[in-house]
Amino acid sequence: MLPHPTLSARYASPEAKPAFVDGLFNRGAAQYDKVVNWGFLGTGASYRRRILLQHGLIAGDHLLDVACGTGLVAVEAAKILHTAKHITCLDPSAGMLAVARTKLTAHFVQGRAEAMPLADNAYDFLTMGYALRHVTSLDGTFREFHRVLKPGGKLLILEVTKPTGRCAAFFFRLWFGLVYPWLTRLFTRSDEARDMMLYYWETMDACVPPATVLCALETAGLIAVRRDVALGLFSEYSAIKADPLRL
Ligand SMILES: C[S@@+](CC[C@H](N)C(=O)[O-])C[C@H]1O[C@@H](n2cnc3c(N)ncnc32)[C@H](O)[C@@H]1O
User: Fold this and answer.
1) What mean pLDDT, rounded, does the chain reach?
2) pTM beyond 0.85
3) Where would a tag sit more exposed on the chain, N or C end, judged by fewer CB atoms within 10 A?
4) Strand 234-241, strand 149-160: pairing
5) 10 belongs to a structural domain
6) How far is the CA of 60 from the centre of ligand 1 (A)?
């Protein structure tokens, strides 16, 4: 199952999507932190840390941060774990990984969520921040998440989701579809950064509804699947890999 239909104005076929997305993030990597920081009013770091704590990340956990990008989730996780030694950061974009490597001494892996070159049953906690829309298959990705988590391991996926109310949807579209990309171009003078934020909007607009994501998580064999929502747009999907010894 695709997270959104093929965006043919951007790439010609589903097969062409990974190369398009990699190019977009490679070109936008240098501007990513700056743009995300002011676009979310400087709340990104504290929000990521709070959510990791709320969802049960604790010192000693082995964490896999899928789609780590420039390391915004992993950096906050390292503060909770008091080390980055037990953090693995995975991302297909060499540009994004290069920025992340300057921030923490974690284990970095270039790869995709749909086929991770990582061992089975290896992680206590798996995170994916704002990247679900970029995978080529929800089912394939969630099967991989289930495979690499230890029994009893926790999954947390962060997303921005288009609100359902008419008025909220209007302002959401205005900000993400128009104002944010325009301000991005103005402040960074970078067409690449503007394109990255425009695509951000296009994928949010076209994304499957939360119920489809929840259903795909359950189909992959995960349990305690739920979605919490902050401010009507920040989705926190969480789930657990069942531990047969504890059932
Ligand atoms: C919007 S950034 C999110 C970065 C970071 N997680 C955060 O919280 O800011 C999306 C990231 O997803 C990565 N990505 C794209 N396709 C992916 C895939 N198939 N598997 C894993 N990561 C992917 C991109 O390279 C990019 O670094």
Assistant:
1) 95
2) yes
3) C
4) antiparallel
5) no
6) 25
Could you read off the pLDDT of 196-236 as tens digits, one per residue?
A: 999 999 999 999 999 999 999 999 999 999 999 998 889 99
Please report, for the domain that includes residue 224, its CATH number. Answer: 3.40.50.150
Residue 189 pLDDT more than 80? yes
Question: Is residue 2 a part of any domain in this protein?
Answer: no
Instruction: Give distance in angstroms: CA of 228 to centre of ligand 1.
Output: 21
Residue 11: strand pairing partners:
none
- Per-residue pLDDT tens over the stretch 135-165: 999 999 999 999 999 999 999 999 999 998 9
Tell me whether residue 21 is in a domain: yes
How many separate domains does the chain show? 1
From CA 199, how far away is CA 155, in angstroms rounded? 26
What is the number of residues in the chain?
A: 247
State the closest ligand 1 atom to the C-alpha of 158, by its place in the atom list counted from 1.
8
The minimum-distance atom of ligand 1 relative to the CA of 113 is 20
Note down the domain range covering 129: 17-163+199-246
With the most atoms of ligand 1 within 8 angstroms of its CB, the residue from 88, 130, 204 to mutate is: 130
Which DSSP string corresponds to 213-229? HHHHHHHTTEEEEEEEE
Helices assigned H by DSSP within the chain: 17-39, 44-54, 72-81, 94-101, 138-148, 166-173, 180-188, 191-206, 210-219
Ligand 1 closest atom vs CA 48: 8
List ligand 1's pocket residues with C-beta within 6 A.
Answer: 21, 25, 36, 66-69, 72-73, 91-93, 96, 112-114, 129-131, 134-135
Query: Is 123 part of a structural domain of the chain?
Result: yes
Q: What is the mean pLDDT of residues 17-39?
A: 94
How far apart are the CA of 240 and the centre of ligand 1, in A?
A: 22
Q: Ligand 1, closest atom to CA 22?
A: 25
